[in-house]
């Protein structure tokens, strides 16, 4: 009998006024909080409520707001060293994937013994030192649920994934008010990123009953909620559902894993700084079509999860309808669909493909073997 494993944050709060649970988490337990965030989050006013609640409990607060989008490993190290000097005994991350990823790294790195580059080379080095609370401000990365942290290696112009169970967050708060004013462009690309996580985990060679449970529900929630969540500021129910969906997809990652979409996406972010959600959205449909010969039954089951198992039709018809649904949603959200918009030309493809083919950790999860020539054809579809 096969064995499966599922790791989850200790406590997750969701729903109306979920932010108020911050008080219950910090009350009487911690002395000093380090808030990891970025200047955009601070400017948007999203720190105000968490900060007010934390200060009401008479805790000291240190704000680390210099986390860049798509951080490099050395940039992450500098932030972690600053955090180490604060003496904080709780990390609160308020932000998107980059903020949460750096916060999770900070929770497991002892700067006197090893740094981010060391942990890239030996991912088991990290040991949980400081508990973490994740408050996502996008519904996409699922970082609040995972043991993963993504950083760039600048000299290689490549993103890498650090995977260590010690980085699983301790607390998570999913509050729709935190994404209420998210611009459509960001809401759309991060939402499709979550959809990629769910679909890739469901079609992965590592898929199992645990991951399938969360991946199917995540896919259903995203398809049913993403368009309204991205276009209507007042659609708090749909926005909360998107936060749940992103979290569920993150849980699926901890038990399964992403595949060729993410493998082909990493070099685009590392060298050309294409936002991760956008590069994934560009690649999703071409990769799904490439994988169809090995995943048609999976697509039919995803269609049933979205539309109800009573829907009539053969496997092929359901797979067709599933792919059409994905295509229509990506089109309706007006996500960029050409690499040329970001300065990528055909002459650049060789280096991009070589880098992608090195992401064996993810390519090995893909049900259909992907060759250099296959990858080239996929990239050419989105030139």
Verbal overview:
Helix 7 runs antiparallel to helix 8, helix 7 crosses helix 11 and helix 11 crosses helix 15. The chain has 383 residues and is an alpha/beta fold. The N and C termini lie far apart (45 Å). It folds into 2 domains: 169 residues, Rossmann fold, CATH 3.40.50; 198 residues, Up-down Bundle (Dehydroquinate synthase-like, alpha domain).
N-to-C span = 45 Å
Question: What fold name stands as the CATH topology of the largest domain?
Answer: Dehydroquinate synthase-like, alpha domain
Domain module count = 2
Approximately how much helix is present in the residues?
A: 40-55%
Strand fraction: 5-15%
Radius of gyration: 20 Å
Tell me about the biggest sheet? 6 strands, parallel
Task: Describe the structure concisely.
With 383 residues, the chain is of the alpha/beta class. It has 15 helices and 8 strands. Helix 8 packs antiparallel against helix 9.
């Amino acid at each position: 009998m096969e064995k499966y494993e599922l790791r989850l944050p200790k406590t997750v709060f969701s729903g109306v006024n979920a932010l108020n649970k911050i008080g219950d988490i910090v009350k009487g337990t911690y002395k000093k909080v380090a808030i990891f965030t970025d200047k955009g989050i601070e400017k948007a006013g999203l720190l105000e409520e968490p900060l007010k609640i934390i200060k009401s409990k008479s805790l000291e607060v240190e704000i680390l707001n210099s986390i860049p989008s798509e951080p490099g490993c050395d940039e992450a190290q500098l932030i972690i060293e600053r955090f180490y000097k604060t003496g904080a005994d709780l990390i609160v991350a308020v932000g998107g994937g980059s903020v949460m990823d750096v916060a999770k790294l900070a929770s497991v790195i002892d700067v006197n013994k090893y740094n981010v580059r060391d942990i890239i080379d030996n991912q088991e080095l990290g040991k949980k030192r400081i508990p973490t609370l994740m408050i996502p401000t996008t519904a996409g990365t699922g970082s609040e649920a995972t043991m993963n942290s993504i950083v760039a290696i600048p000299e290689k112009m490549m993103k890498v994934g650090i995977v260590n169970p010690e980085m699983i967050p301790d607390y998570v708060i999913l509050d729709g008010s935190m994404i209420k004013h998210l611009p459509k462009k960001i809401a759309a690309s991060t939402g499709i990123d979550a959809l990629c996580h769910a679909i890739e985990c469901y079609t992965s060679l590592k898929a199992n009953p645990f991951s399938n449970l969360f991946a199917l529900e995540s896919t259903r929630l995203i398809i049913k909620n993403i368009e309204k969540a991205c276009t209507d500021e007042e659609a708090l129910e749909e926005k909360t559902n998107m936060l749940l969906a992103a979290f569920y997809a993150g849980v699926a990652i901890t038990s399964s894993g992403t595949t060729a979409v993410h493998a082909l996406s990493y070099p685009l972010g590392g060298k050309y700084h294409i936002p991760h959600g956008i590069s994934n959205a560009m690649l999703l449909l071409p990769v799904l079509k490439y994988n169809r010969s090995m995943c048609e039954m999976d697509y039919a089951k995803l269609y049933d999860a979205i539309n109800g198992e009573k829907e009539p039709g053969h496997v092929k018809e359901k797979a067709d309808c599933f792919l059409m649904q994905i295509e229509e949603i990506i089109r309706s959200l007006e996500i960029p669909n050409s690499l040329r918009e970001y300065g990528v030309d055909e002459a650049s493809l060789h280096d991009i493909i070589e880098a992608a083919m090195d992401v064996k950790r993810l390519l090995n999860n893909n049900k259909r073997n992907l060759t250099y020539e296959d990858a080239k054809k996929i990239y050419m579809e989105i030139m």
